[in-house]
Design goal:
The chain is an all-beta fold. It is built from no helices and 9 strands. The strands form 2 sheets. Strands 1, 3, 5, 7 and 8 form a 5-stranded parallel β-sheet that branches. A 4-stranded parallel β-sheet has the order 2-4-6-9, with no helix packed on it.
Amino acid sequence: MMKEKNVHLFFVTNTNATIYIKNSTFSFKSGTFMNISSTSEWGKEGYNGGNVTFTAVNNVIEGNITLDSISTLKLNLNVTKHLLVLLKEMILQVMLI
């Protein structure tokens, strides 16, 4: 089966989002777990990034997290069993809970 190149499990643009997952397993075929970035289809260019607070409790997560320069991510991890994440082009605030 081919990997989908531009599909993400979570895609946040031009909004604020709070995502909470618990006791789950995620492995997405495209390799991108979450994309938080601006897009030309939504909002005013330069102001349309995404802002995410993401909390994961007791999960298995595989995939990349991408973030552009006008978006933010607050990442809260608690007892995450396995985390393979590549954090690209981001300013990241990590708080372990």
